[in-house]
Amino acid sequence: MSTCPVIGTKKTKGKTLTEDVSGEVSRGAKAVVVLPDIRAAHIQDPEARLAEGCGLALAIGIEVVESFIVPVRDVRPATLFGSGQVDRIKLACDMEEAELVIVDGALSAIQQRNLEEKIGRKVIDRTGLILEIFGERAATAEGRLQVELAHLDYQAGRLVRSWTHLERQRGGFGFLGGPGETQIEADRRMIRDRMGRLRRELEQVRRTRALHRARRGRAPWPVVALVGYTNAGKSTLFNRMTGAGVMAEDLLFATLDPTMRGITLPGVEKAILSDTVGFISDLPTQLVAAFRATLEEVTGADVIVHVRDISSPMTDMQKAEVEQVLADLGVNTGEEDSLVIPVVEAWNKWDALTEVRSEELTEQAEREERAVVPLSALTGLGVVALERTVSDILTASAVVHSFTLPATDGQRIAWLHAHGEVLDERTGKGEDGSPQLEMAVRLDPREYGKFLALS
Predict the structure, then answer these.
(1) CA 309 to CA 375: how far, in whole Å?
(2) 257 assigned ligand-binding residue
(3) Structural domains of the chain, with CATH
(4) 332 is an annotated ligand-binding site residue
């Protein structure tokens, strides 16, 4: 169960619509999903965007009984849609016995209230739906703090809707308002106070994370961050590379809380792999702000692996959305103070491509400026190549050194195998006839210094 944002106040059978429809949106509730295709917004692929909206509904257990695109030439301030379009939505709800209308776009508080009054059902927009999903999925105390802050921020501008019936009781004169106005102000003050406390707690979380990143920076282990559009396969790839049991389902926003595990890469004894929250188009600004402490984990990475669902018809748009969020975090913007972090694109779900499409993308990958690795996190195809590519970036400053060690010096020989990449190994004999091992090992400067300290 998850709580739906507060709804409007039409009178129905002796009680307000607030009382009638502000209950819970239960799993299995029937919903009609509507995508407003606003001419000025120019949605690239309306059909794919509608499918994503249905995916968001399914992610929270809602049964989508009907979905369709509504072209909007001129936005109506009161309802967004024209009167005929509103009637069409109401008819679809009546025909399918739907309890909920999901508008896959942004609705103002007034538009949401008016639509509820005209359709007689709960109405939530894209922001409200994403907040519902985040509220259900947040597993850690930090995640719940972030979701609550985002939800309060969203609700603050919609408070007037839940107290419309009280505003009708206004009976004061001049600056003296009625009881409805007083109640609204009291509620707004309570929300502001609660948001202030949450922001202070999240600021402490941000400082703590910064300290952890600084501590990891002093440690000898590089950090590899998986980023990507929601449901691109980040958690499946994370599990494949680490053997972890992170939730990985064919659902939007299956992962909210960042997870880190140690992995071994060729020539790298240990690296930290981080799985992050997925991005999505039109991600509510409240969530971007609230989850900034989590997203900032990316800024401490040595390498970013951008996991793309290359089988999606919207893959280019999704790539643009991810790169915009990274730019908002100050990563790879091209400006002077920008963080420059190497990016590897993991073109995931390669197994879902047709032969013709895979050939086209293979040619495209060869033309890309940044490193591209075709893979399937589900089958394991290309994962070794990805590890090799990331390793090459991490060890780009490494130099091949030649060592001649006594064959009996097991400690240092084992150390070189663990901390470097052994390219060649030959046995021989010293001047005194004792067995020796000649080794060619690639080591970065830091590891080479540590090896010299062992001698």
Answers:
(1) 10
(2) yes
(3) 2-137 (3.40.50.11060), 220-394 (3.40.50.300), 399-454 (3.30.70)
(4) no
Q: How far is the CA of 253 from the CAs of 52, 57, 92, 241, 284, in angstroms?
A: 12, 11, 28, 20, 14
- Is 78 known to sit in a ligand binding site? no
Q: Binding site annotation covers 398?
A: no
Say if residue 377 carries a ligand binding annotation.
yes
Query: Please, which pLDDT band fits residue 89 given cuts at 50, 70 and 90?
Result: very high
Closest CA to 428 of 453, 403, 446: 403
What pLDDT does residue 165 have? Answer: 43
Was 3 annotated as part of a binding site? Answer: no
172 in a known ligand binding site: no
CB atoms within 10 A of CB 449: 10
For a pLDDT cut of 90, what percent of the chain falls above it? 33
Q: What is the pLDDT of residue 12?
A: 36
Q: What's the mean pLDDT when you consider all of the chain?
A: 80
430 annotated to bind ligand: no
Q: What pLDDT was estimated at residue 3? A: 35
pTM of the model: 0.68
234 is in an annotated binding site: yes
